[in-house]
């Protein structure tokens, strides 16, 4: 008889903590509303690079980092992914500080389905009938929202699109999560630093130096970037993907709750219909994944 699959409790806790980090991130960026969104992202890049390099050194991954830097094809992939990552960060931060957290959360609800759809198109992965139904239900939900909240729908679609394309490129690029992020941050670093230096030498001014608390929050963006990724990367090694998948909906669910109940963002009927259809779609998709995995398990003798 087959032994039951063991579930690592530490891995579950790490994954859940990572999703909680991502879920409460709007509260963190709301504290930086006095700083322009582009500058917040620039500081996130500037302060993340030294922290990531220390982590890579501590994890003894410097040889892997050197190998990536020597590979032209991998560097090109990571250059593309770094541009998508920067765009995703900028749109997300802008959405949070301009009171569009609900729209941002919708983008991250859509992205898992869009990632699978892109996998089918680009990687020739197969869709089951139920997966097609899930995608069609999600598309219907987005269509409903387009009628009443068209002005903010672009935020959700831009976040979902940039993150899905980023995920696709990172799947193709032969680079681990931490080393890959370090290279991406390094590629963005000169642009971010140049922008910050331009701010400090022109009449535009800079949010950095306003107060010690603002400075600490800007620098702390590095921890908010690296900590959940480290936790999630560790959890992936311990927990089955069939469990990690549903856990990833914790973050956008928290963002949705924070946007509506903490910052009193408007929740229209079309929002409720759209989110309801998206949640039904995700439920079908998660069930299909779990059922498909279970059906492939050998029957106990």
Structural class: mainly alpha
In total, how many beta strands? 0
Unreliable runs, pLDDT <50, ≥5 residues? 1-6, 294-301
What composes the largest sheet? none
Strand content: under 5%
Based on CA atoms alone, the radius of gyration comes out at: 20 Å
Question: Any idea what the shape is?
Answer: globular
Note the run of SSEs as H and E. HHHHHHHHHHHHH
> What fraction, in percent, of the residue positions are helical?
over 70%
Task: Please give the alpha-carbon distance between the first and last residues.
Answer: 5 Å
Number of helices: 13
Give the integer mean of the pLDDT values: 84
Explain this structure to me?
This protein is mainly alpha-helical and 301 residues long. Helices cover 80% and strands 0% of the residues. The chain has helices spanning 9-23, 25-30, 37-58, 62-70, 72-97, 101-123, 129-148, 150-172, 177-201, 212-236, 241-247, 250-262, 269-295. The chain is globular and about 55 Å long. The chain starts with 8 loop residues before the first helix and ends in a 6-residue tail after the last helix. Residues 1-6 and 294-301 have low confidence and may be disordered.
